[in-house]
Amino acid sequence: MGSKARLAKDIAPKINDLISKNNISTYIEPFVGGANMIEHVKCENRIGSDNNDYLIEMWSKLQQGWKPPEQLTKEQYQQIRDNKNKYSKELVSIAGFCATYNAKWFGGYAGIVKTKIDTYRNYYDESVRNILKQVEKLGDVQFLNVDYTYFSNYKNCLIYCDPPYQGTTQYGTSKDFDYNKFWNWVREMSKENVVLVSEYNAPEDFNIIYEKTLTTTLDKNSRKSDTEKLYIIGEAS
Fold first, then answer.
1. Are the C-beta atoms of 94 and 71 separated by less than 8 Å?
2. Among the four given CATH numbers 3.40.50.150, 3.40.50.720, 3.40.50.2300, 2.30.30.40, the one describing domain 1-51+146-237
3. Which residue spans within 2-56 are E strands per DSSP?
4. What CA–CA distances, in Å, run from 151 to 31, 97, 183?
5. pLDDT value at position 3?
6. pTM for the complete prediction?
7. Is residue 213 exposed (0-12), middle (13-18) or buried (19+ Cβ within 10 Å)?
8. If you read the UniProt record, what top EC class would you report for this enzyme, in one word (predicted)?
């Protein structure tokens, strides 16, 4: 949910250009989620973090060669959902993000579905195959299970933030997000780093350097159009 896969081809080149122009050696993505952006970023050091420990364990284990199950039935999905402590974190993550509709954390089982044109799609299989392709591009990424504030003392980095969008369905395990605290943190970090934020809206002191309207699928019966924007304080240099 909130996947940047469709925007990566537009945003990643901007990130790479800023990394090159500012001679930056460390790229940080504090809300790495599905890693759809970081896989396209070119930087000497790449750090992807998230406060969802299941997600980070999944990426770490995939880096080490772990292979997810080829199939996951509805019954298995429900067992894992209701008994998370009995299963490995990487398996819980696969169930919670790949066997569910639109990658919403345990948002309802999505396996093989009949489409409107009488064909069938295996959403779990598609999700797992996509993740395995990504892992090939994530070999040197350092994955951390930390909150974004962990990076408060970092300097001379490019930090790309894709936080839970204000006013939309929350994803992951987070239910509360302090937006005022976040924007103040971005302001402070922008003093000695290049900080970019993807959001629909931002405080008035932030400037839009990119925007695009996309149709977002919230669940199998709900679609809406929103304009994704990329923000920065001051001018991109």
1. no
2. 3.40.50.150
3. 26-29, 45-49
4. 12, 26, 14
5. 56
6. 0.88
7. exposed
8. transferase
